[in-house]
Each structure stands twice: as structure tokens, then as C-alpha cells.
Amino acid sequence: MALEVGGKTIETDEEGYLENRDEWNMDIANAIAIAENLEMSDCHWEVVNFLREYYEEYQIAPAVRVLTKAIGKKLGKDKGNSKYLYELFPYGPAKQACKIAGLPKPTGCV
Amino acid sequence: MPETKKFLYVNRKAPYGTIYALEALEVVLIGAAFEQDVSLAFLDDGVYQITKGQDTKDVGMKNFSPTYKALGDYDVNKIYVEQESLDARGLTLDDLLPLTWEDEDDDWAKKDSIKVISAAEMAKIMEQSDVVFSF
Amino acid sequence: MSQLHTVNKSPLERNALESAITHAVKGNALLMIEDGVYGAMQGTHKSAMVSEAMSDISFYVMGPDLKARGIDETRIIEGIKIVDYSGFVALVAEHDTTQSWL
User: Which fold would CATH assign to domain A2-100?
Assistant: First the structure.
């Protein structure tokens, strides 16, 4: 599969995750979001940026339970719950947000 | 609530020469979703997995050592390292990654996950485990 | 005839390094690669074996493999030379034969 962004072809795997993480930029993130029927808001970006920072530090995308706890600690209890995260990313905060963040599917995503 | 079992993951291989170390780490992370009582044991060449300063860019492999630092987030905070294995390799606790976890019930205080123990103590931990995964 | 021996197993897990040292003759070279580079570290239970063999064998170790495993150059047994990939190729070219101790 591939994605067309700004005249460039971006390779993705069969589920839509980027093949090359280094190609990621905000335009690509927006394009993936549109393909997922999502409109990126500041709240979406907060989670996406958090995931990218987490990956940078630990070299993995966190499982949803870990993400929820970490978001709660960083952005406040009102955001650190699965209801909030599922409202932002209805197909699963870890799976969908990771895709938009240009990260691989989270380890431990069962 | 089902009864929790004591899971022990035994790591005995160096990190990059074979796939065991990375596979073990992935299984631990996946298994952590099941909220069991998880312990990790590092002995023999397994102690090389959690040494500091790994930098794989010149060998074209993924450096997965930073991922061990995420184990605390996955509530995996009982990490046993065998003293005799460190000694045989000229290593000390200072050579290992500082693996910690944050205790939610203690105002997120950072606590050490690694315990260096003797082979005799390791034997006891193995003996007392309900399920042992060997890598 | 001059032979280059390569060892890619950890000396604390397998006896490849020990066997290579036993079978190498005076004037041979031995290159530690992949997990074999743990054999180049000071202060291990196998360090003395390497140091003693140094009078007859020239020891080399792959720098990128050391770096991947977080082994600082300051912790390498004195007398072992660190090489990169082109150094590996040069060693193979310099010797008549290469034997891999797997």
C-alpha cells in the first residue's frame, strides 16, 4: 500500500502503518488521519506527539494500558482514561494514534 | 478475579548474536497485558542484554536496550540479576541500565527494579515460580 | 601458511574461542566478531586465556560489534587491535586461509 502526500509516494504496510518511520511529518500524519476519517485537533496532536516522544525514548509504541496511565500522569487525570482516548481515536488509541504518529503497531496490542 | 500466577522469564543469551533476547522482551511486553505476577531473571550471557551504552548504528540492527527501561511502565518491576554471572563477565551493577519503576501508591516515587542476587537465591526464585519461560 | 581464525560466539557460553586458541599456531591471527567480541573484555573468566595466547597469536576485535554491545574501548584487553569492516576485509586478504569457529 502507499499514500500520496504533497506529490510524494509514501510506502505503508497492508494495515496502513508507515514502512519508513523517518519519512513522517505533520502532512503525512494529517493524510493518514483523513484516511481514518479523523480530523486532527490539538487534543489529537497531544496524544500523537506523546507517542512519538515515548517511542524516541523507549523504541516501542506503548500498549494502551501503559499509554493511558502515562497520559494521565503527563496531561492530567481527565485525559488519562480510555473513554477520553477512545473518543479521540475510536478504532483504538494505541493502534490508530500510532498509525498517525508514523510508528509501528504497538507491541502487546492483542 | 482469576488467581494470579507467578511468571518467570529466564534470560540467558547475549542480545544481538541470536534472536532470543528480543523475542523474550516482546513476549514479556505482550504477557504484561494479562496482569500476572511477572519476574525477569538475567543470568549467564543474559546479563549482557541490560548493559549500558549499547549503540548499534554501525551494525545495522535495532538497539532494543532502551525498551528495557519501559518495563516499569508495564508493571514489570522485579528484575533479578545473578551476581555470579556478572562476576564471570567482569561486570558490576554500575554497568547495567538503571531500570526503575514509579510507585503509584507512593506519590510516583522512582524505585529500583533490579536486584542483584546469588545463584542460590536465583534457584529459589525459579523453584517458587508457577510458570517459567526460558530464552 | 598463515591462517585467520574468526570467532563469533561468546566465550562464556560456548567453547569456540577456547578451541580456536588451542588450534591456532604461532603467527596466526584471531578476529573476534559478533558475540565473540565479549572475549575481548578485561576482567572476565576468559581474559587470562586470551592474554596468555597473545605471545603466539595476534588478536583483533570488530569495533562496530563492541559498540553495539556497549563495550567501551577502555575495557578491552591490552594488545587486542580494534578493526572496522574494511580492516576485516584486509585481514582476510592478508591471510592464506580463513577458518570460522562457529
Answer: Arc Repressor Mutant, subunit A (1.10.10)
